[in-house]
Write a structure and sequence with these properties.
Elements lengths: L10 E8 L3 E9 L5 H5 L6 E11 L7 E10 L5 E4 L7
Antiparallel strand pairs: 1-2, 1-5, 2-3, 3-4
């Protein structure tokens, strides 16, 4: 994947995002030292760029998955979002 000029001075953060009917695993790029919550709460940006995204079903009985290099996600549809490095698997 290519590096765009706006991504040069940003750090990759792998995230999991839940919407009402699906889960998105992908990456967001933030300025060094930024937090995902700051990124989400920025009122000027309605859409979040997600790269290397895997979108999959979460409802029982549904089994589908899409992989896309890039998508713009409308923040209004996010139920929850967290960095994958925050997960504690037991």
């Amino acid at each position: 994947m290519f590096d765009s000029p706006e991504r040069i001075n940003k750090e990759r953060h792998d995230v999991i995002i839940y919407l009402d009917n699906c889960k998105i695993q992908g990456a967001v790029y933030l300025p060094p030292g930024s937090r995902i919550s700051d990124f989400i709460n920025a009122p000027v940006k309605q859409f979040i760029p997600i790269t290397d995204a895997v979108i999959s079903a979460i409802k029982p009985g549904e089994d589908w998955k899409y992989e896309v290099e890039f998508l713009d996600l409308n923040k209004n549809f996010i139920v929850t979002m967290f960095p994958t490095n925050a997960m504690k698997i037991k």
